[in-house]
Amino acid sequence: MTTVAVVGCTHAGVFATNSILQQHPDWDVHVFERNATVSFLSCGIALWAGNHVSDPKKMFYSSPAALEEAGAHVHMETDVADIDVAGHSLVYKSLETGDTAALPFDKLVVTTGSRPVVPPIPGIDSPLVTTCKNWNDAVSIRERSHGAKSAIVIGAGYIGAELAEQFSLNGIDTTLIDGLDRVLANNFDRPVTDLVEHKFAEHGVHLALGQKVVAFSTDEEAGTVTVTTGQGEYTAEFAVLAMGFVPNTDLVRDQVETLDNGAIVVDDYMQASVPDVYAAGDAATVFYNPTGKHDYIPLATNAVRQGLLVGLNIDKPTVKYMGTQATSAVQLYDLSLAASGLTEAGAGRRGIVARSTELVEEYRPQFMLSTAPVTCILTWDPATRKVLGGQFCSTADISGAANVVSVAIQAGFTIDQLANVDFLFQPNFDQPVYYVGAVAMKAAGER
């Protein structure tokens, strides 16, 4: 019988385990998870803090019991202390009893995920400073934010922006700090981020952008924490770190090929550089179609698809990974934002020459009783004219546009081809020329 060790069980681990057992129901699959829960949808933390979650139990789509029912041996609250990749064995320890044991395995699946970036800044270990990653963090943020009058969020990516939004809507005096000069700077270009920053200002969020945090200090008597940057000091009842994530791969980092940040390099079939070792999710690289290179993009969507592929390929290479465009979306106040692929700034950071075309127009005809402008940005390669990315922002729901661009990138469309796609027209939904096609037409006309 083939023995499989799955180390880590959030999204990639859950889907890999189920996929393996569906393909090989007679295999002996052991799942190791150091937390007490699996499958937590951490993207809902800000929504729960803002009272937009019907039942926090529904933030989990699987359970240890469900994995057991599928046929897995589940070791919860268990720490894998050591993995000998070449020797095909691992040592694990129960966090409840302290007991240790060894498991020989035939195949190893590393789905250990990521951990929050916590820089070695003086005072960052304050009890009034929390990360935003797992269920325990969610409970802490929910409890701290209810009844609080002030908060500081450090990091203006998706997670930090959502937290700042929800805190401000709950009447909490909120400061949002980031080392970059724009909110969501890694997700959108300036025409979109300017709109978001205006919304934050309207809702009283203090933006401390282009500022690096250098220290934290806690006043226990006052029950406050002060965050010091190179340009000022900000004091609140608590602070949340939302500074990004790094792969949690120390157990195997020196035994398989990784990127400099520790992400395990996997091939088209989720196999690492060593036979019988597979990786998926935040612990692994993705193949980023806009650049044609391996990259590190920790998203639940990537984790789910990669996890499924582990089960399909763990016996023999069968189904090839199609890559990712890092398609994503976020709702901030009444703004819907969605994107896929490269921004112009993102292309520049990667040394890629790209052009961007911007279009702002009403998303449906003016004769409708209501409509709203949509900001569209299409990023493309001036040499090949291939679509590299798209960004959309409106008070209307424009999330589907990012999926359209995602398909276009994956299919290798040029801006000319995208401009000629057969998009629907119906006044309730769009203009005679759908705005994705319209911005592609504008780009195609630029020489």
UniProtKB/TrEMBL annotation:
Cofactors (names): FAD
One Pfam family in the UniProt entry: Pyr_redox_dim
Domain FAD/NAD(P)-binding intervals: 3-307
GO molecular function: oxidoreductase activity
SUPFAM superfamilies according to UniProt: FAD/NAD(P)-binding domain (SSF51905), FAD/NAD-linked reductases, dimerisation (C-terminal) domain (SSF55424)
InterPro entries attached to this UniProt entry: FAD-bd_OxRdtase, FAD/NAD-bd_sf, FAD/NAD-binding_dom, FAD/NAD-linked_Rdtase_dimer_sf, Pyr_nucl-diS_OxRdtase_dimer
Keyword line: FAD, Flavoprotein, Oxidoreductase, Redox-active center
Family: Belongs to the class-III pyridine nucleotide-disulfide oxidoreductase family.
Protein name per the record: FAD-dependent oxidoreductase
Lineage, broadest ranks: Bacteria, Bacillati, Actinomycetota, Actinomycetes, Bifidobacteriales
